[in-house]
């Protein structure tokens, strides 16, 4: 029945490379690369071919096969599978490279780092300690050829061919018969008398000293070269000398050698070794220890080898997130290690974790994801963004934490190119309208305007026509000066998206109103934009044939030129706006509700000065504002007014800093008042009554007021009661002057007002309407009291009527 015979080599579940790998160790084994047939994962295969007349070497190979199969330790070469026949012996291990080849490769790339060598030697010594102290075995073959390196840079001890028992029950040590291996034997083995007193580990520790010398100095030419340490680090030299001492009794035990090298100032006392030791025991560490470790890990990753980060740190980070409670602390080191991965590996290992993290309700994790989105956004495809990430990100627009809302707004710069029609033109615009109209934080309203200007090119033509002009016009009415600057710059940055009619009838009237703005930076940007729009209109007026060319992007589906600019703006928004917003928020101190803070803005030249207002009790000096400014540069190029493509939106931060620098004590009170209102815990969140974009948050509604109107001061006289042209003289004086004086002294300005020097009559009209309403209420109350008094008087005079009686006249 010969047809039932199977060839074990052909059925071996591993593919074997035909040629041995480079740097195969000396001895009976040949190292081949291989792959598992089922999964394709790489492995290393040690092959021994049985030869006639080499029975002793065959027994050594079979003994090594047995030893490697039974010994399991993290620092010993990991056995996967094996095959033993009459013709050959195959030993399959994890994919490794001989140490000599690894060191040559690292030398070509600039040489291995001392940290890497310290951890590698630590692993070999730990493996020797396991064999000697736990297994009572003598390795008998410690040398460069017996050490291998896996893909993570971990050193593994192999070469178990000549191992024997330290207790002497296994017979005499096997004979090597290979000169390349016998040169590492200690000198006491040459003493045939056997009078030398030695420990069981003495020979292996001598060979360890030879290995250390070769790691730092190259191949060992002869035993006498061990007297010169060469390039061995100074912190390791004293311990190395103990290993190669002539007295075998004085050579330290592997465990004591590790302890000496781990002492303060020792060669193995460094951050890299500590990190590896912690990772080996991470499963039994306390949660607090894990949190601290991951927080400090990102600082050290830059000095660690790339292979170590990819193949050892990354799996531990993924495991800690998947099965542990590490939370947001793993994000920073995770994305740092992700830089070493290829695009395919990133998709397989990092992206599934990122998608799962976005569904978390942990605020710390959410804000770190938003802050570091720039590192992984290029690996996300559009379906994943629209179906699994964007629905979770939009919840940040409704968050009560301003930092979450700010980071959510800025993340739209990166997500907008990947959003579909519904998410970009409907859902996102609804949230932007709400933020710009109702958010109590001025910097967030400013950032919303900035972001809208940067993603405007991705919007559809109908959405651009409906949204951009209204949104930027609303921003120019914002009480927060940088928001007004952002509105002007928004018009300038999206100039090619407006028709000539819109420029003349919608944009220029808005910009002209800003020429009398209280802030000089707003006026300067307004004049600059007006000149640019006028030059554009004038050029079309001179040559009407240019109209089609000028308006080519108005009805276009997308603007490639503007898309490229948006990509460059995204980098600025993630870095520059963050610092801008943090400065502005820090510059707004919280003010108690009872503290009167009255703001007064400088009057532009040519306008009447407002009535003087009392200074706040505890003014915040302008030095506080200036302390938050870094790298202020307010220089402007007036000649670049009509160069639209060179318009730099990045100057918004500089403009905002210029605004802060120009403000003096007169403005700190108002700013503090606004900050005091926004920090009030009783303030109702504007998100609670949001129903629909068209109904409540549309761009056309203009600036909406979140705070209720204040009642007028008591005793205010209405304009209808004032004698405007009567013959009799009035000794009451000017009612408007009295009204203004009372308002300045007795009331606190509204947080969203522009100050007492408002550029219109809105404040006075509001006071008049409030006074009329109060007067009507008082009249109704007085009439009700009169009616009740009459009824009471009538009852008291006649008494109650009796049933059946007739009323007498």
TrEMBL record:
One of its GO terms (biological process) is retrograde vesicle-mediated transport, Golgi to endoplasmic reticulum. Residues 644-656, 754-765 have a biased composition (Acidic residues). GO terms for cellular component: centrosome; cis-Golgi network; COPI vesicle coat; cytosol; endoplasmic reticulum-Golgi intermediate compartment. It is found in: Cytoplasm, Cytoskeleton, Microtubule organizing center, Centrosome; Endoplasmic reticulum-Golgi intermediate compartment; Golgi apparatus, cis-Golgi network. Residues 16-35, 591-809 are annotated as: Disordered. One of its GO terms (molecular function) is protein kinase activity. Residues 660-680 have a biased composition (Polar residues). Its main location: cytoplasm. This is N-terminal kinase-like protein. The gene is SCYL1.
